[in-house]
Every structure is written in C-alpha cells, then in structure tokens.
Amino acid sequence: EVQLVESGGGLVQPGGSLRLSCAASGFTFYTYWMSWVRQAPGKGLEWVANIRQDGSEKWYVDSVKGRFTISRDNAKNSVYLQMNSLRVEDTAVYYCARLMISVVRGVKYYYGMDVWGQGTTVTVSS
Amino acid sequence: QSVLTQPPSVSAAPGQKVTISCSGSSSNIGNNYVSWYQQLPGAAPKLLIYDNNKRPSGIPDRFSGSKSGTSATLDITGLQTGDEADYYCGTWDSSLSGGQGVFGGGTKLTVL
Q1: Do B101 and A114 touch (CB under 8 A)?
Q2: Which residues make beta-bridge pairs with A39?
Q3: DSSP summary character for residue B78
Q4: Chain A contact present for B33, CB below 8 A
Q5: Would you tell me how many other CB atoms lie within 10 Å of the CB of residue A122?
Q6: Is the model's pLDDT at B98 over the cut of 80?
Q7: Which of A47, A57, A62 is most worth mutating to test chain B (most B CB atoms within 10 A of its CB)?
C-alpha cells in the first residue's frame, strides 16, 4: 500500500524549532519529488516546499524562506521539514505529499499531488 | 486572498449536479496544469483530478475536470451525501522568480 506517515508535530514557543518527518512506503521513493503543504486552523491549503528526487533542487514559499529547510534521505524513504524561528502564524496541520511533476528541457510541469499523509499538527504559542 | 478564486460554498440536492469554478490568470491556470482535491471533514486532502481532467484510479467518473483559458471547473454529478466536503483547486504560478505553488481558497459543498 502506498503510504505517507508524518510525525514530529507538537507545541512550541515562538522562536523555537521543530523537525517534521514523513516516512514513505509502498512506492519507489527516490524517483519522486516530494512536497509539504500546510493548513492553518479553519483555513485553506498552503503549498510550503518541494524537493527534487536527489535533493538537488528545493523550492519554498516566501513566508518560510530562510526559516524552513526541506531535506530527504532516500536510504530511509523519508522527507523532512526543519522549522526554525517559528511564528504564531506557522500554526497549522502539516501534510507531506507526493508531487507529480515532469521536467522537459528544464521546464517543469506540475500535474498535482497524488498521495498525502494524514498530517501532523504544529502549534506555536507561548 | 488566494491567487486562485473559488466560490466559498455551493449546494445541491442528492442526485443533482454541481459545478465548482476556479479562476486564475495567464501566469497560473492559463499556462499550467490544474489539479483538484477533496477534503472530507477531519481528513487529509485527496486527489480527485490531475493534469486538468484526468482521474486517478479509484475516483468515480461522477467527478470530472476541465480547463478553458484562465479558468478551471470541477463537475460532480449524481451527488451523494458522502460528497459533502471542501474542494480545492491547485496549480503552479510562474509569475514570480522561481514560481509558486498555489491553491484556491476552497469551496464547501453542501448536499441538501
């Protein structure tokens, strides 16, 4: 069964750090781009970060640039999100997702996210 | 404000058809593929449509997607009470350096 399982969420004070993990199973993890998407309480989805199959290319939404770092360990079939300098507005459920993307002559075509984890909750509060 | 505009809510009776719109611009929907997601209450999003109009295996053909110019549409026919959920469109926006992944604000479907 194709599956993504997130962990690492919790309560942290503003300015603190957390590291989220996402364990993949049931598919050839190293052949896929991966993403993190978050959803603040009662709000819509926000696309946070992407990482290429070999980790050589990463993208971040402006609001987390310089504070969050996406990484992966293909030997462990896992993707991570290191979150530093956390703010109250980072409070959300964080989902990892498998990204369907093709790259043709350097141009990326994004088709969608076909597998999602159950999410892990991050609460930033004093 | 989301880059992609969706109606906040739609409703219809069981068995009827509902259409959810997603409006964007040439930098996003106009030049990139659109995907649609269903989020049932308390659950993670689930892919319904990718590449504008393709259904993953296991998604019934009651769900269909289309794109025209800078807008996309999700149609749901034969509505069931189990379709009550939030629906989101998503795509890539190429207007900024490096681009940006974007979602619509979501549409809450009520099956009356």
Answers
A1: no
A2: A45, A93
A3: S
A4: yes
A5: 21
A6: no
A7: A47
Nearest CA to A95 out of B103, B23, B71 is that of B103
Q: Quick one: how far is CA A50 from the chain centroid?
A: 7
Q: What single-letter DSSP state applies at residue B50?
A: B
Burial degree of A21 (CB within 10 A; 0-12, 13-18, 19+): middle
Does A61 contact B101 at a Cβ distance shorter than 8 Å? Answer: yes
> Is A117–B103 a contact, with Cβ atoms under 8 angstroms apart?
no
Question: CA-nearest residue of chain B to A41?
Answer: B42
- The pLDDT confidence band at residue B83, using thresholds 50, 70 and 90, is very high
- pLDDT category at A108 given cuts 50, 70, 90 is confident
Residues of A within 8 A of B33 (CB-CB) are 109-112
Nearest to A60 by CA among A46, A79, A73: A46
With an 8 Å Cβ cutoff, is B37 touching chain A?
Answer: yes
Task: Supply the pLDDT for residue A41.
Answer: 97
Q: Distance between CA A39 and CA A45 in Å, rounded?
A: 5
* A112 vs B47, B99, B104: nearest CB: B47
Cβ <8 Å between A116 and B2? no
Query: Between the CA atoms of B70, B75, B81 and B84, what dihedral angle is there, to the nearest 10 degrees?
Result: -10
Q: CA separation (Å) from B40 to A19, B46, B70, B85?
A: 27, 9, 27, 5
